[in-house]
């Protein structure tokens, strides 16, 4: 009996577990940077700090390292991951437009910041006004040069929106000052090294004086400065840039130290970007195009700005430390809450288990009482059946014996024969009633018996199953099946004529058909030609010996090939015998007899081994069996017997253990299992299981570990009285005698 399911507790457990989880929505935000530098590191840190104000926000950062293809892959990866929002700083204006539009089509909000993209399919843009940056630096340089001088501009990455817009703003401002000549517009890529290389090339071509250099960021301005000073240590050229970052050798320190005359703050404002992202995700109003404010930095205000930046950095570190401590406290709180809830769940399960255990034992007691009542009913049933069978048998056997003893028929014998026929029909009806499982409504366990083959010691059903197994598995009057495989019709007809008195013959015209019929019929022996279309006899041998269902079947090869190498190949393929054509039917019959006798010895050996192994210690093979190749099973068959032994051992106690379960455990159908076990042990699966159970029970009784009822139940019997009957039939003594020994 199974303990009842805990289904009523599932809603309660689910509610407890849900109460442990937070109710707030968790957001994932992907950040795609076009490159890595200190400006973008500052933005990323500000973004993380801004996320502290919101619960359950996870940031995923990726850098394209100035590669358009890599940034496209990263954005698509964010889309496939299903993030809630993507923040993008495009490497160039148009190259990653398809990736941004793809995210937008997937209904993922996109924030474009710093640099612009060549599409309107985004949720919002936030960044500084780069055209105004260029314009302000142009006015500043014109003012410092008093409207006259030569200027060189160093642009950022070609095709990026900041480089284009700063250049346009710069040139627009200088148009108002015709006395200022733009000597060259050099191309860089936002790094100091690229500006230094571009300036060195320019200085080789131009020998004129350079009054001012405008680098579109501070690093390129410093790179141009290094190139000019390396060319002429006395140069009076002045330099200015953009960014004015306060960290490490950045523009703000360089302005303070006089290396740069001025810089223009290019704001990062990661906190504002995070606020914009959360407004979009939570459905609050937001500005689609937002320009960040900025200012010019000169030597006069650089020191003040540095002090402010240091204070902001200190406060940011304090905030991060407080945030980490808060997360630690929350983690401990959540852990303690989970432990408390698990303790409550365990307590509930414990109470439920106690209740279910009580119900289980109460139900078991009720079923045991019902089983005892059913056993009494069954005893009455079999007593009545015995009487009903003996009566017609007496009226059949005795009159016929009289007629046989007299040796001739008389006139009144016709009435006697009518009476005999009538009682024979009556006996047939009684037998049919016994074999009809629907006439027996319940077994000793109180379970309804369906029309199926149960390997159980449940009185009449087991006998009926054994008979059904034998009837289904032994066609044509109990003769064993022999499979003939040959593509020559005359050979097949001749073999049928020679062998039909002893075997039920099944034919196949090629190896493939033969393999199919071998698996279907599981014959006692296969006789096959070698040279056949579709599949040769050697291939048939290999397939048959490799299949668990057919590996035990002996194979005789008939062929015209007689060379030693060909014979050796046949034996290597798994053949048990090799007869060359033309052959004598007497030799063939003798070889068949020899093989069948060897197989009989193997059956007897394996029957002893298997039953003994299932019951206790395995016996050693006899000397005859060890010296007889045909009587010694293959490794695959030994493995099968070992698996079968293991299955019987594991399921021996189960009274409901069925043929289908045994077959599924070893990978065979019901018919294949019957014929395989019968071929290897000479016993049907039912007989093998019953013998194994009885041997095990005898050992338990002799060891006095259990009484008779306990031993019966321990090996799968459900009726001690039926167990006693089977025990006496097997060992010739009652179980109590074995218990006393």
From TrEMBL:
One of its GO terms (molecular function) is sequence-specific DNA binding. It catalyses: ATP + protein L-histidine = ADP + protein N-phospho-L-histidine. Residues 610-632 are annotated as: Disordered. Its EC number is 2.7.13.3. The modification 4-aspartylphosphate is found at residue 529. It holds the Pfam family HisKA. Keywords: Membrane, Phosphoprotein, Transcription, Transcription regulation, Transmembrane, Transmembrane helix. PROSITE patterns: HTH_ARAC_FAMILY_2, PROKAR_LIPOPROTEIN, RESPONSE_REGULATORY. Residues 642-741 form the HTH araC/xylS-type domain. Residues 610-625 have a biased composition (Polar residues). Residues 481-596 form the Response regulatory domain. The chain crosses the membrane at residues 338-361. The keyword Hydrolase does not apply. PANTHER family: HYBRID SIGNAL TRANSDUCTION HISTIDINE KINASE C (PTHR43547:SF2), TWO-COMPONENT HISTIDINE KINASE (PTHR43547). This is histidine kinase. It comes from Segatella baroniae F0067.
